[in-house]
Design a protein that fits this description.
8 helices; Arp2/3 complex 21 kDa subunit ARPC3; globular; single chain; mainly alpha; 194 residues
């Protein structure tokens, strides 16, 4: 495990060109994991594995480059690269029911990278769980629910209360997100330099 920690430290110390390549690689991983999805009949938001890559982006690439990797993912996807869930791309996805979650990916990766890079106390397993849970359930879900509510109002003509929004945009994903968070915390705990 010490060799893995040393490798992670070296990843953070590479040249600017290599950091851009690593950020692009993490964006590609996010796009690949976005294709693993499960549709539920009561929500327009599918269950995907991409949040796992988002969480790891902050850990592996650090406070700036983790977020930059997700900016690359969102910008290139909006430009038309078909790597959002369901092999879709384009500006319409950003304006659709899942667009707010995509913005949340950037916030979550930036936050996780910032906290883990700047505060040594954050590198314990339980601390990582808390940081990742906050990033996932607040920084990803909050902009996601705001945009989902706007989308439902504008395109479906329905006004949703918080319970209805939570039922469509949070509740179906909690169990999977807990599994992804625990898995990411275990990986992070084993690779973060002490």
């Amino acid at each position: 495990m010490q060799a893995v920690s040393l490798a992670l430290k070296r990843v953070r110390e590479v040249s600017l060109v290599n950091k851009i390549i690593l950020a692009l690689g993490m964006a590609v991983l996010t796009g690949i994991l976005a294709q693993i999805r499960l549709f539920l009949p009561w929500t327009p938001v599918p269950v995907t594995c991409q949040t796992f890559a988002v969480i790891l982006a902050g850990i592996v690439l650090g406070k700036y480059w983790g977020g930059i990797s997700q900016i690359i993912y969102v910008v290139l996807g909006a430009a038309g690269i078909p790597w959002f869930n369901g092999a879709t791309g384009g500006y319409g996805v950003i304006m659709g029911p899942t667009g707010g979650y995509l913005l949340g990916f950037i916030l979550a990766a930036l936050f996780i990278g910032h906290v883990v890079d700047n505060y040594k106390w954050s590198r314990g397993f339980y601390q990582l769980l808390g940081i990742m849970a906050f990033a996932n359930f607040i920084l990803i879900y909050l902009p996601g629910l705001i945009q989902l509510n706007i989308w439902l109002y504008l395109f479906k003509g329905t006004s949703s209360n918080f319970t209805q929004l939570a039922y469509a945009g949070v509740m179906p994903f909690i169990a999977g997100d807990i599994i992804k968070i625990i898995s990411a915390a275990l990986i992070a705990r084993s690779i973060i330099p002490k």
